[in-house]
Amino acid sequence: MPCPTRSDELVFFVNGRKVIERNADPEVTLLNFLRKNLRLTGTKYACGRGGCGACTVMVSRHDPASKKIRHFSVTACLVPICSLYGAAVTTVEGVGSIKTRIHPVQERIAKSHGTQCGFCTPGMVMSMYTLLRNHPEPSEEQLMEALGGNLCRCTGYRPILASGRTFCVESNGCQQKGTGKCCLDQGDSDSSSLGRKSEMCTELFVKEEFQPLDPTQELIFPPELVRMAENPEKHTLTFHGDRVTWISPGTLKDLLELKVKYPEAPLILGNTTLGPAMKSQGHFHPILLSPVRISELCVVSETSAGLTIGAGCSLAQVKDILAETVSKLPEEKTQTYRALLKHLKSLGGQQIRNMASLGGHVISQHCYSDLNPILAVGNTTLNLISEEGMRQIPLNEHFLAGSASAALKPEEILESVHIPHSHKWEFVSAFRQAECRQNALPDVNAGMRVLFEEGTDTIVDLSLAYGGVGAVRNSTHQSCQRLLGRRWNELMLDEACRLLLEEVSLPGSALGGRVEFKRTLVVSFFFKFYLEVLQELKKLLKLFPDSCHYPEIPDRFLSALEDFPVTVSQGVQTYQSVDSHQPLQDPVGRPIMHLSGLKHATGEAIFCDDIPVVDKELVMALVTSTRAHAKIISIDSSEALELPGVVDVITAEDIPGTNGTEDDILLAVDEVLCVGQLICAVVAETEVQVKQAVEKIMITYEDLEPVIFSIEDAIKHNSFLCPEKKLEQGNIEEAFQKVDQIVEGEVHVGGQEHFYMETQRVLVIPKIEDKELDIYVSTQDPAHVQKTVSSTLSIPINRITCHVKRVGGGFGGKVGRPAIFGAIAAVGAMKTGCPIRLVLDREDDMLITGGRHPLFGKYKVGFMNNGRIKALDIQCYVNGGCMLDDSELVTEFLILKLENAYKIRNLRFRGRACRTNLPSNTAFRGFGFPQGVLVTESCITTVAAKCGLPPEKIREKNMYKTVDKTIYKQAFSPETLISCWKECLDKSSFHSRRLQVEEFNKKNYWKKKGIAIIPMKFSVGFAATSYHQAAALVHIYTDGSVLVTHGGNELGQGIHTKMVQVASRELKIPMSYVHVCETSTRTVPNTIATAASIGSDVNGRAVQNACQILLKRLEPIMKKNPEGTWEDWIEAAFEQRISLSATGYFRGYKAYMDWEKGEGDPFPYYVYGAACSEVEIDCLTGAHKKIRTDIVMDACYSLNPAIDIGQIEGAFIQGMGLYTTEELKYSPEGVLYSRGPDEYKIPTITDIPEEFNVSLLSASQTPLTIYSSKGLGESGMFLGSSVFFAIADAVATACRERDIVKDFTVRSPATSEWVRMACADRFTEMGNSITERLQLLFSLAEGEKKQTLVAILLIFTLAE
Fold first, then answer.
1. What end-to-end distance do the CA atoms of the chain give, in Å?
2. CB–CB of 1264/581 below 8 Å?
3. Superkingdom of this entry's organism (predicted)?
4. DSSP H or E run through 1192
5. How would you class 634 by CB atoms within 10 Å of its CB: exposed for 0-12, middle for 13-18, buried for 19 or more?
6. SS3 letters across 238-258
7. What pLDDT, in 10s, does the model give residues 80-125?
8. Residue pair 406/368 in contact by the 8 Å Cβ criterion
9. Nearest to 759 by CA among 802, 690, 810
């Protein structure tokens, strides 16, 4: 490659300011440039692959043809800066600032309580802001589309949507609009609740207080860029990086010449394919050709024959073009366009659709492409161009299969795509099934087209194309040919399904596996197509009285034709308003906005990696094991150390102190125990250099045995991390002798990734003297980081200061793990003498850190025919991974909490943590409760099924009724539990809706509804008194302002906000006087992890104590001058030499557990709740939608209802993800496949219930906690299981209708695959080979039967 002397100037604008980059590097993304070069850190780095939306910004371009400005949202992590020539970029900082003026979008998302940790908030703001720049009064559908590419792990999305809906033109708070009723009208059935009604409030924010949106106040598009667009540069722009050259021709002629010169160079427009491939798969291209300035590639033309769309048009533009065409043309001509539109709504997120080009999508030939199968069946033509001229090729099965005869020549490019109009008697449909409804790659998709002889149902032409069924698309040409001339009836359907399954071959090693599921979808989709076409034929054939008879579609089948619509979630949040006598200045009990909410929304909230680069700072990256169990023979770092910029490689030999603990080693020494175990770390000057160096570290292994991945294998090998934990009460063996029925079953619960939006990150700054270190770290437990660094470096704890300003989500994943990363970075800092920054990529974070423990539970339950459970024996095994971590504690908590809300006299609970060759699993929100209690609740549903009673009746019958003792002998009153249960039944109108669900199920065969209500008794806190202590430091300054420091960490749960509320009440001053700076081990030492739902409880008591000490000191002054102001009193106190600083301390709740005796008081208190969820499933695809969820939670007396309701909603949605979509997938070698948002699906904004209601019980008093409040951070997690049991209820109905004998094995998550395969029918049966079934029968048969089967087997083998 020639090495020219200089690059061209790259000119673009950022937030209205001109940027001229004279040395633009093609490998630098916009995200990197904004954060590193311009120091605009509001745009966040979270996944690096365009899948989460945290880095969303707005790009604007002037279109010379229409003379209009196009605004579109993009993910900055995928945008090469070289692609931005002539563009204007707007980041969250350019939208508004708390220093100048905040924008209405920023104000509303903050004041609607749509921020918690705040890491995703700038991306949410930018998606909504872009929407409003294009549509100042958007529809709710447009709002959902705009936010579909943004993920949030904290809020549960509901308040984010609430903020967006305030801009919508048809925004209506009532779920039942048009009926004349309001969802707030509870009706007569609600009378039990409520003399309390007048005290209850349903407004968390006042919409009327929001500033109006004024489009005239937005940043203008730079006139210079208008001139540049109107008079474009025609010469070729070239940008040279260290490794890559970016060439952007100004004319089509130049592009074609360059394609001849560099035939292997890819064309790059949106970078949505190349970007992730270069980042995660190591793809490298020395030359990149960018046709972004070639206007000919964006031309759209329409003729009587069809529509021709330029290959350079983005998918979002294609969607708009198709929508406009559909609105103008008769339906018979737009069949293909409608099918494409259907898939374009769910293909990627809005940002990806804005970036990805039609040409790129077509040419990439992804096996999972949503559009190519439709284009193929629609007889699409690809218009190719080269220096030699134009050429056309059909986009057909040969092109999809990657056939050489149908491929582009190296010097050719795709100019445009011609999609013909459909014709009368021609029908085109599209189908897809994915793990989530939006922004998820399909498991299987399909395009289908049929043409009939006019006036008949005789097939003239048939074309079917599938995606997602293999690395290369399987052709269906032979099947389609054999069906020509056939009539569209049941016989044809059966024949078509058989032919398709023969031709669409899916080997056991098919991409992504799940072969039976995919085979089933192949024929299920065709059946849907069959019904759709039959319905349309019915309408057309009515015009032909003499036409042949066609099959009738049973009414019960019609629901199969309807897709689940995407709707904006609505609901009511109910809480008790404060006493009318409470002073207005007292903020406790009021829905106060998160103190950092506005800063989250403007991007001015500083997270760990937002701290500016420090002098001499170096970057660290980790080297991990690629083997699951092996001996380390050698580590060769010589090649890495020779690379420019590489400073050092840190190994275990460099650790001056202890290398972790026996149970949790920092860096592997002689042996690795899992893929992803840390072996060493590389330190270099830049991120690019350090990543290149990691690839050069050569590690030689010798594989060891055994290699254990599953719990079942661990049990077989007797591989455990700790002794068995056991609790028992009553006489279980005797009880089993006296019951009417005994059932045994199994429950399998998958693991869960924390997926905090901010990955693990740490900045270690060594001081010049005394071996002091400042550590800025994203952690829930800075004291643990401090202690670990101390022991690792062998220096006293008092030399190390950990700082935590805020954490971008934790959920338990930042309790123990940050200490490991902090310690390794500290070793690097001490060895090099330089500051070290360590930021984990999403892929590495997910690979290394572990998550929720998968569980395998076995139960044996004895019960009477009336549903009364007399004996329950549960044995649980959790997959702890390769080292102990928190696995023993998780096992203990799981066993302690297994009984949930039920009083069963005879119990035996046993639990063990298995040692496997996977990364160590760790603390996670709920700490064993969400997995364990799923076993208990599965027992309940089993008992209900065997007794022929509804599950809710069994739950009520076995629930605690009076003051009693738990299995571990701790006394409690279930009064609040019963109140939650009854109120949830009441508010959800459960019984009437149960009848409606049953009625719906009678009328619909392929769609089924399910409803479930689940009670909860959640124990809060650690099972040890010392872990409940807390301290605070409160300073009052002479101007009257107050600084509060405490031991809790701001994770998004609003702990700082609540502490300011406490200080405000205690000192009787406005909240504006009080400030919380950060959590620091220098100001409050020996802190406890912010976890177990007690952070606000215990730290609130410490802040309260400090404020009361100060107020007591001020009392004489206040009595002497009762008319004085706060400032007067403080000034007087200073003059009288009264200390205005106080340390507050809370000794903690008493808690203990004696495992030998099996008794104790391990928990300070319980949180009670209940949730009712209703779902609808599609039995043909396994998809489901959440219709409605009602949650009633006992908050006792909420410190801040807005924050507490947000915690409940966020935990519920996270739990819903655990039980429905979040699935960890490993290779046979123990490598985690699901290492990013593309493969691991947390709930998106389209996955939340259509109606989502949360009620806090009326306030009650408890002297134990601060102002009688309760910690609600974790408890809502398990209530997500109500969705799981509602899905199970719907599946059970389908199974009963199909006479399927259901076993008692429960598997979570309830993915679409699980749902589809559980609803067995003739299509699932077709998915299994007849030969395989006969071979199984053959192995079981004997004598003459075996001889008969031999003959049958031979016939079928020959037939197949």
1. 54
2. no
3. Eukaryota
4. strand 1184-1193
5. exposed
6. EEECCCCEEEECCCHHHHHHH
7. 999 999 999 999 999 999 999 999 999 999 999 999 999 999 999 9
8. no
9. 810
DSSP symbols for 754-791: ---SS--EEEEEE-SSTT-EEEEE--S-HHHHHHHHHH
What whole-number distance in Å separates Cα of residue 1033 and Cα of residue 1063? 11
Please state the separation of Cα 84 from the chain's center in Å. 30
Instruction: Pick the closest to residue 797 from 773, 763, 761, 766 (CA basis).
Output: 773
Please, are residues 55 and 40 in contact by the beta-carbon 8 Å criterion? Answer: no
Structure tokens that stand for 556 in this block:
């019960």
Read off the pLDDT band of 3 (50, 70, 90). Answer: very low
Say how many CA atoms lie within 13 Å of 262 toward its Cβ: 17
CB 1149 within 8 A of CB 1264: yes
| Structural contact between residues 134 and 127, judged by C-beta atoms closer than 8 angstroms | no
Task: Pull the structure tokens for residue 663.
Answer: 């149970």
Evaluate whether 793 touches 852 at the Cβ level (below 8 Å). no
Residue with tokens 């046979």: 1228
> Is 653 buried (19+), middle (13-18) or exposed (0-12) by CB count in 10 A?
exposed
Q: In this structure, what token pair is assigned to residue 59?
A: 């790009």
Helix, strand, coil fractions of the chain, as percent rounded to 5? 35, 20, 40
Report DSSP letters for 23-67, one per residue.
T--TT-BHHHIIIIIS--TTSPPS-SSSSS-TTEEEEEEEETTTT
- Which H helix or E strand runs over 982? helix 975-987
CB proximity list for 381: less than 8 A, separation 6 or greater? 392, 393, 394, 395, 417, 418, 420
Q: Do residues 1196 and 1259 lie in contact, with contact meaning Cβ atoms separated by under 8 Å?
A: yes
- Please tell me the distance from the alpha carbon of residue 1090 to that of residue 1095, in angstroms, as a whole number: 5
Burial class (CB in 10 A: 0-12, 13-18, 19+), 1317: middle
Q: Comparing C-alpha atoms, which of 964, 736, 1051, 778 is closest to residue 869?
A: 736
CA distance 223 to 232: 14
Say if residues 184 and 980 touch (Cβ distance below 8 Å).
no
Point out the catalytic residue in the list 983, 1176, 1223, 1274: 1274
Backbone φ and ψ for 602, nearest 5 degrees, come out as: -100, -5
Burial of residue 443, with CB atoms counted within 10 A of its CB: 0-12 exposed, 13-18 middle, 19 or more buried = buried
DSSP 441: -
Mean pLDDT of 1007-1019: 98
Question: What's the CA gap between 273 and 414, in Å, rounded?
Answer: 16
Radius of gyration (Cα) for the chain, nearest Å?
A: 32
Lowest mean pLDDT among 540-544, 816-820, 1004-1008, 1333-1337: 1333-1337
User: Does the predicted TM-score (pTM) go above 0.90?
Assistant: yes
- CA torsion angle 1003 1007 1009 1010 (round to 10): 130
1274 catalytic residue (yes or no) = yes
- 397: pLDDT confidence band, cut at 50, 70 and 90? confident
Pair of tokens at residue 418: 């011609």
C-alpha–C-alpha distance, residues 1171 and 1190, integer Å: 6
Question: In 3D, which of 63, 80, 82 has the Cα closest to residue 71?
Answer: 63
DSSP 175-240: TTTTTT--TT---GGGGGGGGGGGGEE--SS-GGGSPPP-GGGSPPPPHHHHHHHHS---SPEEEE
Of the ranges 544-553, 782-791, 1029-1038, 1251-1260, which one carries the lowest mean pLDDT score? 544-553
The β-bridge partners of 240 are: 245
The whole-angstrom separation of Cα 929 and Cα 899 is 10
What is the rounded CA–CA span in Å between residue 694 and residue 987? 57
The amino acid sitting at 677 is Q
User: For residue 1242, how far is the Cα from the chain centroid?
Assistant: 2
